[in-house]
Structures are given as structure tokens and as C-alpha cells.
Amino acid sequence: MQKVIEYEVSYDVVATIEYTGEENPGEYYFRIMRHWVDLVFDDDEDEAFATVNEKGEIEIESYLTGYVRDEEASAIGKMMEEILANLKSNSND
């Protein structure tokens, strides 16, 4: 599963977010690839992971020393809703 979002910080950014899988039970990992539209350098990449807390809320954190922008966290949250819905429907089959 992959999602591409566009947002603006000090430059226009296109971020491609790719779901890479569940590595540890309950930890869902994502790869974030950022491209600054007006710049030919400075593209970067980070990783994030999402968990579901005891209240059923999705929590998103950067992995290791990276960062996750609000727009990226929002997109990951929507992707997580799809992932969890698919897991639930597969468990009901």
C-alpha cells in the first residue's frame, strides 16, 4: 500500500508514504520519501511506525532519529484505518 501527498513547508514537498509491514506484533511500519519540488537536492527519507493504544487510538511516531510532519502523520493515520479494517474483515472470513 502506498499513498502520495503534497504539502508546503517553506517549499512544496511531495511525500510518498509506503506501508512496509508489521515487523513486531502491533507495530506497523512505514517508509516516508520526501521530494522538494523546487530543489534538485535535499530529498530525504525517514521511517515511522504506528501502534494502536489501549483506547483504540492510532499513535504514530518517527522511527529512530527521523521525523514525521503533521501532513504525513495524517496520511499514515488514514492508511492505518484501511489496514486495520482489512485485518478485521480478514479475521471475520
Care to count the β-strands?
A: 5
Percent range for β-strand residues: over 45%
What is the arithmetic mean of pLDDT?
87
From the N-terminal CA to the C-terminal CA, the straight-line distance is 21 Å
Walk me through the structure.
The chain is built from one helix and five strands. With 93 residues, the protein is an alpha+beta fold. It has a five-stranded antiparallel β-sheet with strand order 1-2-3-4-5, covered by helices on one side. The longest helix is centred in the C-terminal third of the chain and has 23 residues, at 70-92. It is elongated, with a radius of gyration of 14 Å.
What's the topology here?
Elements: E1 2-8, E2 12-24, E3 27-36, E4 44-52, E5 58-62, H1 70-92
Antiparallel strand pairs: 1-2, 2-3, 3-4, 4-5
